[in-house]
Amino acid sequence: MFWNEVYVATRIAISSDLCNEVLEETQHLDFKPIFRKVNSEKLDRFRLQASIPVSGAAIGEIHEVIASTVGEANPNWAIKESSWKALKSLPGGKDQSVYHDYSTFETARALLKHKLVLGSVIVVLMDNSRLHVYPRCLEVTRTRESDKRLS
User: Fold this and answer.
1) What pLDDT, on the 0 to 100 scale, is given for residue 149?
2) How far apart are CA 134 and CA 110, in angstroms?
3) Whole-prediction pTM value?
4) pLDDT of amino acid 101
5) Which of 19, 64, 113, 123 matches a 20 to 30 Å C-alpha distance to 53?
6) Quick one: residue 32, left, alpha or beta (phi over 0 = left, psi -120 to 50 = alpha)?
7) How much is the average pLDDT of 99-126?
């Protein structure tokens, strides 16, 4: 198996109460616009992001659950406390462009230096959230025809 084909997909049961507590903790974060299209200089007022401190009780609990699950999948994988981000999509915006979380350079550097690739963990806290994913896709461009929609 090639390194770029390895991924772990899992469902973790997080209680509704804990999700609501995290949502409450994130409501007061300093959200700033992010890009809708890769390599665009124009910020999208409908897509917002904020750093999440894990000092809150609820997000700290979710961090521990995720870190434990990731560690069980591969003991060499780790999640830094400083890496948590909250994303907020506001009504009225267009679909976000397809993109990679990490550039080819970043992925290659991680592979050469640590013998591991970079990865992302996505925790969806709100009902009816939709996420488009492209399994085993490390291509520069990708169309929506082959996506998988998770709800």
Assistant:
1) 52
2) 21
3) 0.66
4) 64
5) 113
6) beta
7) 72
Helices of type H across the chain: 16-26, 57-73, 104-114
The two structure tokens encoding residue 111: 């592979």
Query: CA–CA separation, 121 vs 123, rounded Å?
Result: 7
Which tokens is 38 given?
């890769």
Residue 47 · residue 32 · CB < 8 Å = no
Number of other residues whose CB lies within 10 A of the CB of residue 50: 17
Residues of the chain with pLDDT > 90, as a percent, come to: 7
The number of C-alpha atoms within 13 Å of 111 and in the hemisphere containing its C-beta is 12
State the amino acid at position 42 in one-letter form. K
Q: What is the mean pLDDT of residues 134-144?
A: 54
Beta-carbon count within 10 A of 62 CB: 22
C-beta separation of 75 from 113 below 8 A: no
| Residue 37 to residues 34, 48, 104, Cα–Cα distance (Å) | 9, 13, 17
Domains of the chain, by residue range, sit at: 3-150
